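Appendix B, example 12.
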Amino acid sequence: MILEELKNHSEKSYATFQSALTPGVPRSSFIGVRVPVLRVIAKKYAGTEEGERFLSTLPHEYYEENMLHGIMISQIKDFETCIAELERFLPYVDNWAVCDCTCPNVLKKNKTKLLIKIDEWINSPAVYTCRFGIKMLMTHFLDKDFKEEYLLVPAKIISEEYYVNMMIAWFYATALAKQYDATISMIESKTLPKWVHNKTIRKALESYRITEEQKLYLRTLTVPSCRGSKTKNYFTKQSVFYIL
């Protein structure tokens, strides 16, 4: 049984550590299995009957089961099968770590269909489905398939969810690193919500892909925060836990 194998690799101290990084998920949901071990287990059961049973059984009880599920989906090599599994799984994703570990490489094989799904995911009211959609846009459409119109997509998202807004900031910081000339005009226009705008600049300043000259200019575009503003209060309470 996959669950038994996960429990055989349990580390209580790691479970405690991981639970502190994943607010909103009960400590009792953590077994304490490290990601490299989860990847080994995912490869072991890929394409097996036991693996198929595991993927067909939702919801899971444990955080590591969901992590393993996302990793196993990421290993699927058929586009349509992968999309079908994502559609079943995404409604059960309840934290940023599981969302972000789910990154199927096969999705790049059909960018036209992927864009349609990204539009659906981004418009979902489910926090981590929306976050996943933004992440797929960032992963697959900021390089050779980039179009300036893609920069407008996350800007249209109106959300008060920390993990959605953090992903939007991550998207634009990555866009600055990969498509600086096209992206900087959006930052200059200051059309993004203040918190997202400033977080984008902060993440860009931390990037080794942004030149020192560019960083100097980005610092001049920071918008002063108003003390006690709703946006400021909204997103800082969990920021201590967030790791990119």
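Residues 162-178 form the longest helix (17 residues). DSSP finds 15 helices and no strands in the chain.
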